Amino acid sequence: MPSRRQVIGALGAWGAVSAAMPAAAQFRVEISGVGATQIPIVVGNFRDEAASGVTLGAIVRADLVRSGLFRASDSPQPLDERSTIVGAEWRARGADAVVGGSVTRLADGRFDVRYKLLDAVRGEELLGRSQLVVAGDLRLAAHRVADEVYQALTGEPGVFSTRIAYVLRSGRRHALYVTDADGERAQVALASAEPIISPAWSPDGRELAYVSFETQKAVVWVQNVLSGERRQLANFRGSNSAPAWSPDGRELVVTLSTAGIAQLFVMAREGGTPRRLTTSNAIDTEAAYSPDGRFVYFVSDRGGGPQIYRVSAGGGNPERVTFSGAHNISPAISPDGRLMAYVARQGNGAFKLALMDLANGGAGGGVRLLTDTSDDESPSFAPNGRLIVYTSRENRHDVLMTTTLDGKIKTRLVSTGADMLEPAWGPFNR
Amino acid sequence: MKSKSTPSLAALACLAAAALLAGCASGIKLQEAPVETRTPTPVGTTATGQTQPPSGQAGSTSPTPQSQVASVDLTRQGAAAATNGIGRVVYFDFDSFVIKDEYKPIVEAHAKAMVADKQRRMVVEGHTDERGSREYNLALGQKRAEAVVRSLTLLGVGPNQVEAVSFGEERPAVQGSDEAAWAKNRRAELKDR
Predict the structure, then answer these.
(1) Is the pLDDT at B36 greater than 50, yes or no?
(2) Chain B contact for A171 (CB, 8 A cutoff)
(3) Predicted confidence band of residue B193 (pLDDT cuts 50, 70, 90)
(4) Domain ends where: A134, A154, A174?
(5) Taking chain B, what is the end-to-end CA distance rounded to the nearest angstrom?
(6) Domain of A237?
(7) Contact, A421 vs A167, CB < 8 A?
(8) How far does Cα A82 stand from its chain's mean position?
(9) Which of A78, A342, B12, B184 has its C-alpha lying 20 to 30 A from A251's C-alpha?
């Protein structure tokens, strides 16, 4: 993954030049699922981490716990990558895996972050790595350790070094933020006196499409995340909104009202003439591609209330996807294409996050609610498909939440006195 | 949100004066300088053809010699002497796009003024309550705005005189999460350009 490292290095430079305005603290674990199978792991504080100013061990532990798949604890004794770790001793204490590490400041000011992961059950060393990073990248180094540990023990890639975009609204101020996946190190990509909605990451993670009202109407913009360069993608008569990238990044589906009502159109990423994708006399909006690029899921009220449909990406007759409930909106498709997260209004008026198994969905089964809250909105899958980020309301403000797919483990990110809206989980860094 | 026009002599005089000033533009305050970092490209470039308010007249907060005119929103009503006194907000029922009879006189009066003056331009902004997704509400608001525009064009207003746009749930007229607030937010606002 050399290219991934390059991107991370570049991000560090970005962090250095932009004025940091922390919008919120970390995602905090809110509900720990009972009965969930969790791998017990010990992650010691990294030797000399106090001198580095970054609590590497705690960041790795928090990342792993947030995934819902680990029960992480600090080591009762000092540990680093050179410690002799005897598997049987740790097994006796109930740990299946042990991480020891260190951080050393080099003469040139960079830091050498080293760690070792031991499988205590088999008594074998799984990973031992060293990363050279600048001070601004120490948190990222910790997230990468967590990603590697996660992958070594679960067989799936971790998402701790990915990013999430969201909108922060405070009075008349609106800002599009990009934050580390744990909620820390939030940086402003766009600030405006007018609303911003519907951020969408390009598949390569370099650009964000979004809807801005800065010209007193809804216009779709595309912005380069690293450079800040931006352009109008769709600014036609009426409203322009709901951008959704095709998986190859070459096209976007947008909602335009040029036909007198919201309809789906396909546009090249460079802009140009839109090609109409849906033709109805009802609202069609909130497009989301299937990861294989074959289908576009969307919301339409052609049958009365809003329901989720899908249409071939080349056009044609849409088929209905949701059948239970009178109001189903905001589809998000899992990276493997098997699941759809969406928002389902309940009989009592509550909006709840729902998950549909698309293989069984058509048969009316395979739907489950993931929340106990009543104002859920805007689901977005983590790129490994294991978590969903969404918003919910708490004390009259919108907060960001993450949940595991079984709904058992939730985390929450709050920004005091402001609303956190429209989260979009970015792709794996490449 | 906007106070209904309550013309006093002073206000009318002020309106007349404002009308002389470059057609009074639209009172759009573009976000010129981002509050926070990371926006090297200035926001608010061209493209919609909206003009900046003339300097010195950028809003209703400019000092005025008489306090009684301070509440008149020139940026909203400056060029609207002919439609002054006509309501500018049409309210809708839940999940409805039908213009109720009680609001038809508003639409008809604006249509009459626009037919009489083909130079007159309007934008109709659709709004919704906060329930549901922002994107779906944007489309709902658009549908309400289009319903008003359709009525205007049926009454003879030229299609180029009026544009329907939507703010969805983004600009509530009233804060609150109860039916009373929601009812005031389900609306279309007719604004001069």
Answers:
(1) no
(2) no
(3) confident
(4) A154
(5) 18
(6) 163-425
(7) yes
(8) 35
(9) A342
Write down the pLDDT at residue A4. 40
Q: What percent of chain A shows pLDDT beyond 90?
A: 78
Average pLDDT rounded to a whole number, residues B38-49? 36
The answer to whether the Cβ–Cβ distance between A262 and B167 falls below 8 Å is: no
CA A24/CA A419 separation, integer angstroms: 11
Output the domain CATH number for residue B112: 3.30.1330.60
Answer for the pair B183, B144: CB distance below 8 angstroms, yes or no. no
How far is B10 from chain A, CA to nearest CA, in Å? Answer: 30
Tens digit of each residue's pLDDT (9 = 90 or more) over A207-252: 999 999 999 999 999 999 999 999 999 999 999 999 999 999 999 9
- How many structural domains does chain A have? 2
Dihedral sign for Cα A347, A348, A349, A352, please. negative
Residues A397, A330 share a domain: yes
Q: Name residues whose C-beta falls within 8 Å of residue A259's C-beta, 6 or more positions apart in sequence.
A: A276
> Which positions in chain B touch A261 (Cβ < 8 Å)?
139, 142-143, 146
Beta bridge partners of A276: A265
ipTM surpasses 0.85 = yes
A154, A178, A207: which is the final residue of a domain?
Answer: A154
A309–B contact, CB cutoff 8 A: no
Residues of A within 8 A of B43 (CB-CB) are 190, 192, 212, 214
Domain limits at B31? Answer: 1-72
Residues A255 and A194 in one domain: yes
Q: What mean pLDDT is predicted for residues A326-337?
A: 97
The yes-or-no verdict on residue A34 having pLDDT over 70 is: no
Q: What pLDDT sits at residue A67?
A: 84
Residues B119 and B183 in one domain: yes
Our count of domains for chain B comes to 2
Q: Are residues A104 and A174 in the same domain?
A: no
Q: Is the pLDDT of residue B32 over 50?
A: no
Residue A85, domain CATH: 3.40.50.10070
